[in-house]
Amino acid sequence: MSKFSNEKINKLSAYVPGEQPKDKKYIKLNTNESPFPPSPLAVRLAKKELKKVRLYPDPDCSELISEIAKTVGVKSENVIVSNGSDEVLNFAFIAYADENTPAIFPDISYGFYKVFAGVNGVPYEEIALKDDFSLDISDYEGKKGVVFIANPNAPTGLEISLEDIEKLLSSNPERVVVIDEAYVDFGGISATSLIEKYDNLLVTQTFSKSRSMAGARLGFGVASEKIIEDLKKVKYSTNPYNVNRVTAVMGVGALRDSEYFSKNVNAIINNRAYTIEELSKLGFTCTNSKTNFVFAKCDKISGEELYLKLKDKGILVRHFNKDRISDYIRVTVGSLAEMKAFVTAVQEILGAKI
Ligand code: PMP
Hints:
By secondary structure, the chain is α/β, with parallel strands linked by helices. The chain folds into 2 domains: 19-36 and 259-353, Aspartate Aminotransferase, domain 1, CATH 3.90.1150; 40-256, Type I PLP-dependent aspartate aminotransferase-like (Major domain) (Aspartate Aminotransferase, domain 2, 3-Layer(aba) Sandwich). It is 38% helix and 14% strand. The protein has 11 helices and 12 strands. The strands form 3 sheets. Strands 2-8-7-6-5-3-4 form a 7-stranded mixed sheet, with helices on both faces. The protein has a 3-stranded antiparallel sheet with strand order 9-10-12. Helix 4 (84-96) packs across helix 7 and helix 9 packs parallel to helix 11. The chain is globular and about 60 Å long. The N and C termini lie far apart (47 Å). The site of 4'-deoxy-4'-aminopyridoxal-5'-phosphate (PMP) has 12 residues, from helix 4.
């Protein structure tokens, strides 16, 4: 810290992204990226667009927004795009939470919510998930704050129903409810269909996972026109050109290439089933993940030891040194070859322990 930093920054614990070690080549199953390249159409459009980076991008991202609206089945007025979905989540903190309106989210969820609260100087309340990591929606009903729920949740992989989301929305009509659907494409059910009925709903999604564009940074929010107006006000007050022109055309290409998208999503769903089955044979307990990761624990080895031994073998997974989940590892679902290598490594590690 410099001697100049203010109290808010001094007190802040920044988000710690999954490690990206450069000492050797790893099988990288720690940050929920896609193992597949982005859509060839997206890449073709990006190459052409590169020649135009002399010019600022369209701050409205009209073409991209219209393509997202078409894909989701809403109007363009219901969509905002952002630099990764992290940015639109932050916009929601800026627009709706304040000293008197805390952010509310589960105790085991996306670690960035706490950081967004800190950097925006707003209080937050964490509500404990049940022992089996399920979420009891009645814990949130009538709470006076902005609720953030990742659905499916990370790192547990578990989903809540649309009925539960509706209960929450109708119990809290004066407050915004944010449903973070970063992983929804891998088998979850989207709440975007509810935005017409509930003007307090904001749904966020990302191109980082199912559309293989984590490095391009593209996310979006879907909500009532009024909420989108609020969020655009924040965008135009912080970074009007938040989505660069190469990323914007890649987004359009990725959405138009729906066959490629479905093929990759199906491959991940199949590889997830393979991984869960193989881990179960080895004595692991896995949650019923609806995401592109598996959340698993085994009585024979601690989460930390398994993470370290896998790292020694050149496989990176994520371990959280956190109460209630320190026994677990979170493993991104990669290609089938990667998952086979992962399973073999786990077998060797457990074999060596017996
Ligand atoms: N929400 C959740 C639950 C996530 O796990 C992530 C990825 N780390 C994000 C949002 C943000 O992803 P991105 O900014 O890449 O869209």
